[in-house]
Amino acid sequence: MFFFKNKTTKDAVPLLEVDLHSHLIPGIDDGSQNMEESLDILKSMSELGYKKVITTPHVMADTYRNSTETILDGLRSLREEVSKAGVDIEIEVAAEYYLDEELTERLKNDDILTIGDGYLLFETSYVSKPMNFEETVFEIGTKGYKPLLAHPERYRYITDPKEMYSQMRDLGIFFQLDINSLGGHYGKQAFELAKFLTESGMIDFIGSDIHHKKQVSYLKEVFRSKYYLEVWKKSEIKNNFL
């Protein structure tokens, strides 16, 4: 495993080689809107040390009803253009599923794109916890998938982090932190909850959640911060095993 020097602490930090959360298939959600933008972002990520990107388009009943076929077609096109452009990075695909009736239906049909050995990346409303949260998480596990909650630090309904995060862990949920939350780029509450998760050693994966090029420059800052170093010290980060 490669390391870089943290400028703030002078400590060696493992180089993050695999990203598992981004929106880089052009034009199918609120992420990259064209191939040129996707290639620009991927080139920048390669320069940061990433070897593999598992990009995860939104799947939402009301907004982004991306089918598995649509996503896989997008992957093929993106891979072709990455190869033509000579960008040295591996591209895989999964999805970020919104916890709604679309996810319930896809679970019934085993129509799920997973990360690694069965991680199902999902998100919820930022404002309120879904009433069927526990039921759906149970169904995810029953189907043989590993529930992986995207950016748990960004949900505003987390009012008692110690209790609520512990309850989620008891349900078998893995946590994926958005790296840029550690830089305050999603607001104060997300920053404070990111620090709580860091200190509690609850983080399993860290993701870029990149939608646009500007977010790459934020990553550069956070990678050199003391908070990012603490993530690696306190938790067993699994990204580089994907």
Distance from first to last alpha carbon: 13 Å
State the shape: globular
Number of helices: 8
- Which structural class is indicated by helix and strand composition? alpha/beta
SSE arrangement, N to C = EEEHEEHEEHEHEHEHEHH
Q: Spans of 5+ residues with little confidence (pLDDT < 50)?
A: none
Q: Give me the side-by-side strand order of the main sheet.
A: 5-7-8-9-10-11
Mean of all residue-level pLDDT scores: 95
- Strand count: 11
State Rg: 17 Å
Largest sheet: 6 strands, parallel
**In percent, how helical is the residue content?**
25-40%
Strand residue percentage: 15-25%
Helix-strand blueprint:
Layout: E1 3-5, E2 12-14, E3 18-19, H1 35-47, E4 52-55, E5 58-59, H2 68-85, E6 90-93, E7 96-98, H3 101-108, E8 119-123, H4 133-142, E9 146-150, H5 161-170, E10 174-178, H6 188-200, E11 205-207, H7 214-223, H8 226-234
Parallel strand pairs: 3-4, 4-6, 5-7, 7-8, 8-9, 9-10, 10-11
Antiparallel strand pairs: 1-2
